[in-house]
Amino acid sequence: MSTSEKKKKDPKDFYIPPHSHCKVCGKAIPEGQIYCSKECRDKDLNQQKKEKNTLWVIYGVFIAMLVILLVVSYFFK
Question: How confident is the model over 9-39, as pLDDT tens digits?
């Protein structure tokens, strides 16, 4: 057997147990879990809260611009 054949590993030699990865940091965790720790869970929940608040601000700005546009168009008929 040559050295290049020895270096090749057979896929059967490797076994990776079923797992998933933490949604925040990417660490391997047992299958079925979402987060590896309470800190990662809290980080993700805070991020979701910030995104939700930002979305509400965008909606508010859009509605305000729409109202301003309607008022201005009413006065400049």
Answer: 666 677 888 899 999 999 999 999 999 999 9
Question: Model's pTM, two decimal places?
Answer: 0.66
**Residue among 20, 49, 25 at smallest CA distance from 37:** 25
Alpha carbon distance 17, 53 (integer Å): 39
How many structural domains is the chain composed of? 1
Cβ–Cβ < 8 Å for 40, 24:
yes
Residue 75 lies in a domain: yes
Owning domain of residue 72: 37-77
User: Do residues 62 and 53 lie in contact, with contact meaning Cβ atoms separated by under 8 Å?
Assistant: no
Considering the domain boundaries, does residue 29 fall inside one? no
**24 and 43 in contact (C-beta within 8 Å)?**
yes
